Amino acid sequence: MAVKLLLKSSSVEDRRPQPSQVSLNEITLNYNEAGPFICCKDSSGNIVQLGGVKFSSDVPADALPGTWWFNEDTKTLFVWNGLIWHLIGGQGGGGGGVTQILGDDGIDAFVNGSIVTLNVDINPDKGLYFLADRLSINAGANLSFDSQGRLKADVTGISFKGIIDLTNDPVVSSPNINDTYLNTVVGTLSADWQAATGEGAILVESGDAVLYGASGWSFVPASNIPTDLGVSGRTGSQLEVTSSTGTNAVLVAATDLLAGLMTAVDKAKLDAVEDGAQANVNADWDATSGIAEILNKPTILPEAPSDGKTYGRKDAAWSEVEPGGVTQLIAGSNVTISPAGGTGAVTVNAADSGVPEAPNDGKQYARQSEAWTEVTSGGTATVDTTSINTNFAISPSTGTMFIGSISASRTYTDAMSSGESITMMVRRSNAAYNITWPSSIKWVGGSQPILPSATTAYAIITVWKASTTLFGSYGGDAS
Length: 479
Description:
Largest sheet: 6 strands, mixed
Radius of gyration: 60 Å
Structural class: mainly beta
Low-confidence stretches: 90-95
Strand content: 25-35%
Strand order of the largest sheet: 30-32-35-38-39-37
Distance between the termini: 137 Å
Number of helices: 2
Helix content: under 10%
Oligomer: single chain
Protein backbone atom coordinates (compact mmCIF):
# COMPACT_ATOMS: atom_id res chain seq x y z
CA MET A 1 0.00 0.00 0.00
CA ALA A 2 1.42 3.41 -1.02
CA VAL A 3 1.52 6.15 1.61
CA LYS A 4 1.80 9.85 0.72
CA LEU A 5 3.37 12.21 3.30
CA LEU A 6 2.32 15.85 3.21
CA LEU A 7 4.79 18.18 4.99
CA LYS A 8 4.93 21.92 5.57
CA SER A 9 7.56 22.99 3.08
CA SER A 10 9.31 25.92 1.34
CA SER A 11 11.53 26.35 -1.70
CA VAL A 12 13.00 29.67 -0.49
CA GLU A 13 16.72 29.48 0.34
CA ASP A 14 17.41 29.40 4.12
CA ARG A 15 13.68 29.66 4.94
CA ARG A 16 12.96 27.96 8.29
CA PRO A 17 9.66 27.72 10.21
CA GLN A 18 8.82 29.67 13.35
CA PRO A 19 8.07 27.69 16.60
CA SER A 20 4.43 28.76 16.40
CA GLN A 21 4.11 27.14 12.96
CA VAL A 22 5.20 23.61 13.99
CA SER A 23 3.79 21.08 16.47
CA LEU A 24 6.02 18.89 18.71
CA ASN A 25 5.55 15.81 16.57
CA GLU A 26 5.69 17.57 13.20
CA ILE A 27 8.56 17.96 10.70
CA THR A 28 9.05 20.55 7.89
CA LEU A 29 10.96 20.39 4.59
CA ASN A 30 13.05 23.00 2.71
CA TYR A 31 13.88 21.73 -0.75
CA ASN A 32 15.91 24.64 -2.18
CA GLU A 33 18.71 23.46 -4.48
CA ALA A 34 21.42 25.21 -2.40
CA GLY A 35 20.98 22.54 0.30
CA PRO A 36 17.69 20.82 1.26
CA PHE A 37 17.03 20.14 4.95
CA ILE A 38 14.28 19.23 7.43
CA CYS A 39 13.38 20.85 10.75
CA CYS A 40 11.41 19.93 13.87
CA LYS A 41 10.52 21.41 17.26
CA ASP A 42 12.47 20.01 20.23
CA SER A 43 11.04 19.36 23.72
CA SER A 44 12.04 22.93 24.74
CA GLY A 45 9.92 24.41 21.96
CA ASN A 46 12.90 25.50 19.81
CA ILE A 47 13.20 24.81 16.07
CA VAL A 48 16.26 22.72 15.15
CA GLN A 49 17.57 21.61 11.78
CA LEU A 50 18.01 17.91 11.00
CA GLY A 51 20.60 17.06 8.36
CA GLY A 52 21.17 18.83 5.09
CA VAL A 53 24.37 20.70 4.10
CA LYS A 54 24.34 24.05 2.33
CA PHE A 55 27.06 24.46 -0.30
CA SER A 56 27.75 28.17 -0.71
CA SER A 57 30.42 30.89 -0.45
CA ASP A 58 28.04 32.87 1.76
CA VAL A 59 27.08 32.17 5.38
CA PRO A 60 23.53 30.71 5.64
CA ALA A 61 20.98 33.26 6.76
CA ASP A 62 18.87 32.73 9.91
CA ALA A 63 20.80 29.55 10.81
CA LEU A 64 19.35 27.20 13.45
CA PRO A 65 21.28 24.86 15.78
CA GLY A 66 22.34 21.86 13.70
CA THR A 67 22.68 23.81 10.44
CA TRP A 68 25.58 22.58 8.28
CA TRP A 69 27.49 24.81 5.87
CA PHE A 70 30.27 23.94 3.41
CA ASN A 71 32.26 27.06 2.39
CA GLU A 72 33.11 26.50 -1.26
CA ASP A 73 35.84 29.22 -1.23
CA THR A 74 37.88 27.78 1.65
CA LYS A 75 36.72 24.14 1.23
CA THR A 76 35.83 23.94 4.92
CA LEU A 77 32.80 22.50 6.75
CA PHE A 78 31.01 24.31 9.62
CA VAL A 79 28.10 23.55 11.96
CA TRP A 80 26.07 26.23 13.84
CA ASN A 81 25.49 25.61 17.61
CA GLY A 82 23.25 28.61 18.06
CA LEU A 83 26.15 30.94 19.02
CA ILE A 84 29.09 30.43 16.63
CA TRP A 85 30.06 28.45 13.57
CA HIS A 86 32.27 25.49 14.52
CA LEU A 87 34.88 24.36 11.99
CA ILE A 88 34.69 20.60 11.56
CA GLY A 89 38.23 19.17 11.53
CA GLY A 90 39.86 15.76 11.72
CA GLN A 91 43.04 13.76 11.16
CA GLY A 92 44.62 13.08 7.81
CA GLY A 93 42.93 14.94 4.99
CA GLY A 94 39.86 15.80 7.00
CA GLY A 95 40.59 19.53 7.30
CA GLY A 96 40.75 21.43 10.58
CA GLY A 97 43.06 24.15 11.79
CA VAL A 98 42.46 27.76 12.79
CA THR A 99 38.79 28.73 12.86
CA GLN A 100 39.24 32.48 12.35
CA ILE A 101 42.07 35.07 12.31
CA LEU A 102 41.30 38.74 12.85
CA GLY A 103 43.77 41.59 12.31
CA ASP A 104 43.76 43.99 15.29
CA ASP A 105 45.31 47.50 15.59
CA GLY A 106 48.53 47.68 13.57
CA ILE A 107 48.11 44.12 12.19
CA ASP A 108 46.54 43.20 8.86
CA ALA A 109 45.50 39.60 8.06
CA PHE A 110 45.35 38.41 4.44
CA VAL A 111 43.80 35.02 3.52
CA ASN A 112 44.79 33.16 0.37
CA GLY A 113 43.12 29.76 0.38
CA SER A 114 44.39 27.96 3.49
CA ILE A 115 47.30 30.42 3.97
CA VAL A 116 46.95 33.43 6.30
CA THR A 117 49.56 36.20 6.10
CA LEU A 118 49.93 38.69 8.97
CA ASN A 119 51.46 42.10 8.21
CA VAL A 120 52.57 44.45 11.02
CA ASP A 121 52.25 48.18 10.36
CA ILE A 122 55.36 50.01 11.59
CA ASN A 123 56.40 53.63 11.21
CA PRO A 124 60.08 53.85 10.19
CA ASP A 125 59.97 57.62 10.77
CA LYS A 126 59.56 56.87 14.49
CA GLY A 127 62.71 54.71 14.70
CA LEU A 128 61.12 51.26 14.17
CA TYR A 129 62.55 48.85 11.60
CA PHE A 130 63.26 45.13 11.03
CA LEU A 131 66.77 43.79 11.62
CA ALA A 132 67.42 40.10 10.85
CA ASP A 133 63.64 39.51 10.71
CA ARG A 134 63.19 41.07 14.15
CA LEU A 135 61.46 44.32 15.08
CA SER A 136 64.13 46.75 16.26
CA ILE A 137 64.54 50.34 17.45
CA ASN A 138 66.85 52.63 15.52
CA ALA A 139 68.58 54.64 18.29
CA GLY A 140 69.50 58.22 17.41
CA ALA A 141 72.65 60.21 18.04
CA ASN A 142 74.28 59.74 21.47
CA LEU A 143 71.88 56.89 22.32
CA SER A 144 72.60 53.16 22.65
CA PHE A 145 71.39 50.09 24.53
CA ASP A 146 72.91 48.83 27.79
CA SER A 147 73.51 45.16 28.66
CA GLN A 148 69.88 44.78 29.76
CA GLY A 149 68.48 46.17 26.51
CA ARG A 150 67.60 49.58 27.88
CA LEU A 151 68.27 52.89 26.10
CA LYS A 152 71.08 54.97 27.56
CA ALA A 153 72.61 58.35 26.73
CA ASP A 154 76.17 58.33 25.34
CA VAL A 155 77.02 61.99 26.08
CA THR A 156 79.80 63.74 27.93
CA GLY A 157 77.59 66.71 28.88
CA ILE A 158 75.26 66.96 31.84
CA SER A 159 73.04 64.04 32.73
CA PHE A 160 69.76 65.18 34.25
CA LYS A 161 68.87 62.79 37.06
CA GLY A 162 65.75 64.39 38.48
CA ILE A 163 64.53 66.94 41.03
CA ILE A 164 65.74 67.59 44.58
CA ASP A 165 65.00 69.74 47.65
CA LEU A 166 68.29 71.56 48.37
CA THR A 167 66.91 72.86 51.67
CA ASN A 168 66.33 69.40 53.16
CA ASP A 169 67.31 66.39 51.02
CA PRO A 170 70.64 64.66 51.81
CA VAL A 171 73.57 64.92 49.45
CA VAL A 172 73.31 62.32 46.68
CA SER A 173 75.69 59.42 47.27
CA SER A 174 77.85 57.75 44.62
CA PRO A 175 77.13 60.27 41.86
CA ASN A 176 78.60 60.08 38.37
CA ILE A 177 80.39 62.85 36.55
CA ASN A 178 77.91 65.35 35.02
CA ASP A 179 74.95 64.16 37.14
CA THR A 180 72.58 67.13 37.54
CA TYR A 181 69.61 67.71 39.86
CA LEU A 182 67.06 70.55 39.69
CA ASN A 183 65.89 72.24 42.90
CA THR A 184 62.14 72.71 43.43
CA VAL A 185 61.95 74.42 46.88
CA VAL A 186 62.61 78.04 47.89
CA GLY A 187 64.60 78.40 51.10
CA THR A 188 68.08 78.32 52.68
CA LEU A 189 70.63 75.86 51.31
CA SER A 190 70.95 73.01 53.85
CA ALA A 191 74.16 72.58 55.86
CA ASP A 192 74.96 69.29 54.10
CA TRP A 193 74.65 70.90 50.70
CA GLN A 194 76.62 73.96 51.89
CA ALA A 195 79.48 71.62 52.78
CA ALA A 196 79.15 69.70 49.51
CA THR A 197 79.07 72.75 47.24
CA GLY A 198 81.24 75.15 49.24
CA GLU A 199 78.44 77.70 49.25
CA GLY A 200 77.27 79.53 52.37
CA ALA A 201 73.75 79.74 53.79
CA ILE A 202 72.42 81.20 50.54
CA LEU A 203 68.80 81.48 49.42
CA VAL A 204 67.99 78.90 46.77
CA GLU A 205 65.20 79.34 44.24
CA SER A 206 63.08 76.93 42.29
CA GLY A 207 65.05 76.22 39.12
CA ASP A 208 68.50 76.33 40.72
CA ALA A 209 70.60 73.22 40.07
CA VAL A 210 73.55 71.20 41.44
CA LEU A 211 76.08 69.60 39.09
CA TYR A 212 78.60 66.90 40.01
CA GLY A 213 81.99 67.37 38.37
CA ALA A 214 85.55 66.17 38.72
CA SER A 215 86.09 68.37 41.80
CA GLY A 216 82.73 67.60 43.42
CA TRP A 217 79.35 69.27 43.61
CA SER A 218 78.77 72.77 42.15
CA PHE A 219 75.81 75.05 42.71
CA VAL A 220 74.31 76.49 39.46
CA PRO A 221 71.85 79.35 40.05
CA ALA A 222 68.82 79.67 37.82
CA SER A 223 70.17 83.01 36.58
CA ASN A 224 72.74 81.03 34.62
CA ILE A 225 69.97 79.10 32.94
CA PRO A 226 68.77 80.36 29.52
CA THR A 227 66.02 82.99 29.67
CA ASP A 228 62.73 83.13 27.80
CA LEU A 229 62.22 86.15 25.49
CA GLY A 230 58.93 87.59 24.25
CA VAL A 231 57.46 90.59 22.47
CA SER A 232 55.10 93.15 24.02
CA GLY A 233 53.92 96.73 23.52
CA ARG A 234 54.06 96.78 19.74
CA THR A 235 53.19 100.18 18.20
CA GLY A 236 53.61 101.73 14.77
CA SER A 237 57.19 102.80 15.57
CA GLN A 238 58.61 100.55 18.35
CA LEU A 239 58.23 97.27 20.28
CA GLU A 240 59.37 95.90 23.64
CA VAL A 241 61.39 92.68 24.01
CA THR A 242 60.53 91.01 27.31
CA SER A 243 62.87 88.78 29.37
CA SER A 244 61.85 86.14 31.92
CA THR A 245 65.04 86.73 33.92
CA GLY A 246 66.36 90.19 33.05
CA THR A 247 65.35 93.70 32.06
CA ASN A 248 63.06 94.30 29.11
CA ALA A 249 64.44 96.20 26.11
CA VAL A 250 62.64 98.66 23.80
CA LEU A 251 63.56 98.60 20.10
CA VAL A 252 62.94 101.88 18.23
CA ALA A 253 62.46 102.74 14.57
CA ALA A 254 65.39 103.14 12.19
CA THR A 255 66.54 106.61 11.12
CA ASP A 256 68.54 107.90 8.15
CA LEU A 257 71.74 107.27 10.13
CA LEU A 258 70.93 104.52 12.64
CA ALA A 259 69.62 101.00 12.22
CA GLY A 260 66.36 99.98 13.87
CA LEU A 261 62.86 98.68 13.24
CA MET A 262 60.86 99.27 10.09
CA THR A 263 57.85 101.41 11.06
CA ALA A 264 54.27 100.63 10.08
CA VAL A 265 54.29 103.69 7.79
CA ASP A 266 57.45 102.54 6.00
CA LYS A 267 55.99 99.04 5.63
CA ALA A 268 52.85 100.49 4.01
CA LYS A 269 55.02 102.48 1.59
CA LEU A 270 57.02 99.37 0.70
CA ASP A 271 53.87 97.35 0.09
CA ALA A 272 52.60 100.07 -2.26
CA VAL A 273 55.62 99.75 -4.58
CA GLU A 274 54.62 97.88 -7.73
CA ASP A 275 56.41 94.66 -8.66
CA GLY A 276 59.27 95.42 -11.03
CA ALA A 277 59.38 99.13 -10.15
CA GLN A 278 62.73 100.88 -10.68
CA ALA A 279 64.39 103.86 -9.01
CA ASN A 280 63.73 107.34 -10.39
CA VAL A 281 66.71 108.49 -12.48
CA ASN A 282 67.90 111.60 -14.32
CA ALA A 283 67.93 110.53 -17.94
CA ASP A 284 71.06 111.49 -19.91
CA TRP A 285 70.79 111.74 -23.70
CA ASP A 286 74.49 110.98 -24.13
CA ALA A 287 74.57 108.02 -21.68
CA THR A 288 75.28 104.68 -23.36
CA SER A 289 74.84 102.39 -20.32
CA GLY A 290 73.43 102.31 -16.80
CA ILE A 291 70.05 103.44 -15.50
CA ALA A 292 70.45 106.95 -17.01
CA GLU A 293 70.64 105.56 -20.56
CA ILE A 294 67.64 106.46 -22.75
CA LEU A 295 66.49 103.49 -24.79
CA ASN A 296 64.81 103.63 -28.23
CA LYS A 297 65.88 107.22 -28.88
CA PRO A 298 64.47 108.77 -32.10
CA THR A 299 66.88 109.69 -34.91
CA ILE A 300 67.73 113.42 -34.82
CA LEU A 301 68.37 114.94 -38.28
CA PRO A 302 71.50 117.07 -38.72
CA GLU A 303 71.04 120.79 -39.35
CA ALA A 304 71.07 122.02 -42.96
CA PRO A 305 74.11 124.03 -44.13
CA SER A 306 74.14 127.66 -42.92
CA ASP A 307 75.05 129.41 -46.17
CA GLY A 308 72.00 131.50 -47.07
CA LYS A 309 70.69 128.92 -49.52
CA THR A 310 67.45 126.92 -49.34
CA TYR A 311 67.67 123.18 -48.70
CA GLY A 312 65.23 120.31 -48.62
CA ARG A 313 65.50 116.62 -47.64
CA LYS A 314 66.10 114.20 -50.50
CA ASP A 315 67.38 110.61 -50.29
CA ALA A 316 68.10 110.99 -46.54
CA ALA A 317 70.30 114.06 -47.13
CA TRP A 318 70.02 117.85 -47.50
CA SER A 319 69.63 118.96 -51.12
CA GLU A 320 69.76 122.57 -52.37
CA VAL A 321 66.46 123.89 -53.72
CA GLU A 322 67.02 125.81 -56.96
CA PRO A 323 65.27 129.24 -57.07
CA GLY A 324 62.36 129.50 -59.52
CA GLY A 325 59.10 131.39 -60.11
CA VAL A 326 55.55 131.00 -61.22
CA THR A 327 55.25 128.55 -64.06
CA GLN A 328 52.22 130.19 -65.65
CA LEU A 329 49.59 132.84 -64.86
CA ILE A 330 46.06 132.50 -66.26
CA ALA A 331 43.66 135.45 -66.18
CA GLY A 332 40.41 134.82 -64.34
CA SER A 333 37.16 136.79 -64.11
CA ASN A 334 37.52 140.56 -64.14
CA VAL A 335 41.34 140.28 -64.39
CA THR A 336 43.76 140.94 -67.27
CA ILE A 337 47.42 140.02 -67.42
CA SER A 338 50.22 141.38 -69.53
CA PRO A 339 51.83 139.75 -71.37
CA ALA A 340 48.97 137.37 -72.01
CA GLY A 341 51.27 134.32 -71.78
CA GLY A 342 51.93 135.07 -68.10
CA THR A 343 55.68 134.58 -68.27
CA GLY A 344 58.55 136.90 -67.44
CA ALA A 345 57.53 140.20 -65.83
CA VAL A 346 53.73 139.97 -65.58
CA THR A 347 51.29 142.84 -64.88
CA VAL A 348 47.86 142.03 -63.40
CA ASN A 349 45.07 144.60 -64.03
CA ALA A 350 41.44 144.70 -62.88
CA ALA A 351 39.05 144.53 -65.83
CA ASP A 352 36.60 147.37 -66.50
CA SER A 353 33.64 145.08 -65.83
CA GLY A 354 34.57 144.65 -62.11
CA VAL A 355 32.27 145.15 -59.11
CA PRO A 356 31.18 148.80 -58.85
CA GLU A 357 31.95 150.80 -55.75
CA ALA A 358 29.28 151.02 -53.02
CA PRO A 359 27.43 154.30 -52.56
CA ASN A 360 29.46 156.99 -50.82
CA ASP A 361 26.76 158.23 -48.38
CA GLY A 362 28.06 157.33 -44.91
CA LYS A 363 25.94 154.15 -44.68
CA GLN A 364 27.14 150.53 -44.53
CA TYR A 365 26.53 148.29 -47.53
CA ALA A 366 27.04 144.63 -48.39
CA ARG A 367 26.79 142.67 -51.65
CA GLN A 368 23.53 140.72 -52.06
CA SER A 369 22.13 139.35 -55.35
CA GLU A 370 24.90 141.15 -57.38
CA ALA A 371 23.98 144.52 -55.82
CA TRP A 372 24.87 146.67 -52.84
CA THR A 373 22.37 146.35 -49.94
CA GLU A 374 22.28 148.61 -46.90
CA VAL A 375 23.24 146.84 -43.66
CA THR A 376 21.16 147.88 -40.67
CA SER A 377 22.06 147.16 -37.04
CA GLY A 378 20.72 147.83 -33.55
CA GLY A 379 17.03 148.09 -32.72
CA THR A 380 14.84 146.19 -30.27
CA ALA A 381 14.85 142.37 -30.17
CA THR A 382 11.57 140.50 -30.60
CA VAL A 383 10.73 138.69 -27.32
CA ASP A 384 8.71 135.42 -27.19
CA THR A 385 7.43 134.45 -23.71
CA THR A 386 5.31 131.40 -24.58
CA SER A 387 7.36 129.01 -26.75
CA ILE A 388 9.75 128.12 -23.90
CA ASN A 389 6.99 126.18 -22.09
CA THR A 390 6.11 124.03 -25.14
CA ASN A 391 7.75 121.27 -27.11
CA PHE A 392 9.56 124.06 -28.95
CA ALA A 393 10.80 123.87 -32.56
CA ILE A 394 13.81 126.15 -32.15
CA SER A 395 13.55 128.99 -34.67
CA PRO A 396 13.65 132.82 -34.72
CA SER A 397 10.32 132.85 -36.55
CA THR A 398 8.50 134.17 -33.44
CA GLY A 399 11.35 136.14 -31.87
CA THR A 400 15.06 136.36 -31.23
CA MET A 401 14.78 136.41 -27.44
CA PHE A 402 12.83 133.66 -25.66
CA ILE A 403 12.01 133.99 -21.94
CA GLY A 404 9.93 131.60 -19.85
CA SER A 405 9.55 128.86 -17.23
CA ILE A 406 8.84 125.21 -18.02
CA SER A 407 6.02 123.66 -16.00
CA ALA A 408 6.84 120.12 -17.20
CA SER A 409 9.71 118.35 -18.95
CA ARG A 410 9.94 119.56 -22.57
CA THR A 411 11.48 118.32 -25.85
CA TYR A 412 13.03 120.85 -28.26
CA THR A 413 13.67 120.20 -31.97
CA ASP A 414 15.83 121.91 -34.61
CA ALA A 415 14.03 124.27 -37.03
CA MET A 416 16.95 126.71 -37.52
CA SER A 417 18.46 127.83 -40.81
CA SER A 418 22.12 128.56 -41.40
CA GLY A 419 23.09 131.99 -40.04
CA GLU A 420 20.18 132.23 -37.59
CA SER A 421 20.57 132.54 -33.82
CA ILE A 422 18.37 133.04 -30.75
CA THR A 423 18.94 133.70 -27.04
CA MET A 424 16.92 131.84 -24.37
CA MET A 425 16.34 132.58 -20.67
CA VAL A 426 14.93 129.34 -19.22
CA ARG A 427 13.94 128.39 -15.71
CA ARG A 428 11.85 125.52 -14.28
CA SER A 429 9.00 125.55 -11.76
CA ASN A 430 10.11 122.20 -10.34
CA ALA A 431 13.63 120.77 -10.07
CA ALA A 432 12.36 117.48 -11.57
CA TYR A 433 11.59 119.12 -14.95
CA ASN A 434 14.24 118.99 -17.69
CA ILE A 435 14.69 119.88 -21.36
CA THR A 436 15.56 117.27 -24.00
CA TRP A 437 17.66 119.08 -26.64
CA PRO A 438 18.08 118.01 -30.30
CA SER A 439 20.52 115.12 -30.50
CA SER A 440 22.50 116.90 -33.25
CA ILE A 441 23.32 120.01 -31.18
CA LYS A 442 26.99 120.57 -30.36
CA TRP A 443 27.57 122.33 -27.04
CA VAL A 444 30.52 124.61 -26.39
CA GLY A 445 32.56 122.77 -23.75
CA GLY A 446 31.14 119.37 -24.75
CA SER A 447 28.26 119.10 -22.22
CA GLN A 448 24.69 120.37 -22.34
CA PRO A 449 23.68 122.87 -19.62
CA ILE A 450 22.01 121.78 -16.37
CA LEU A 451 19.10 124.04 -15.46
CA PRO A 452 19.40 125.69 -12.02
CA SER A 453 17.37 123.96 -9.31
CA ALA A 454 16.17 127.28 -7.88
CA THR A 455 12.82 128.19 -9.50
CA THR A 456 13.77 131.90 -9.58
CA ALA A 457 17.03 131.42 -11.51
CA TYR A 458 17.28 131.55 -15.32
CA ALA A 459 19.79 129.63 -17.45
CA ILE A 460 21.12 131.93 -20.23
CA ILE A 461 21.53 129.84 -23.42
CA THR A 462 22.44 130.90 -26.98
CA VAL A 463 21.66 128.66 -29.97
CA TRP A 464 22.81 129.27 -33.55
CA LYS A 465 23.29 127.38 -36.77
CA ALA A 466 26.33 127.46 -39.04
CA SER A 467 25.83 125.71 -42.33
CA THR A 468 24.09 122.46 -41.28
CA THR A 469 25.44 122.26 -37.72
CA LEU A 470 23.44 123.45 -34.71
CA PHE A 471 25.53 124.91 -31.86
CA GLY A 472 24.68 125.82 -28.29
CA SER A 473 26.44 127.82 -25.58
CA TYR A 474 25.62 128.08 -21.86
CA GLY A 475 26.30 131.58 -20.51
CA GLY A 476 25.56 130.92 -16.82
CA ASP A 477 22.62 131.55 -14.45
CA ALA A 478 20.81 134.78 -13.55
CA SER A 479 18.13 135.41 -10.90
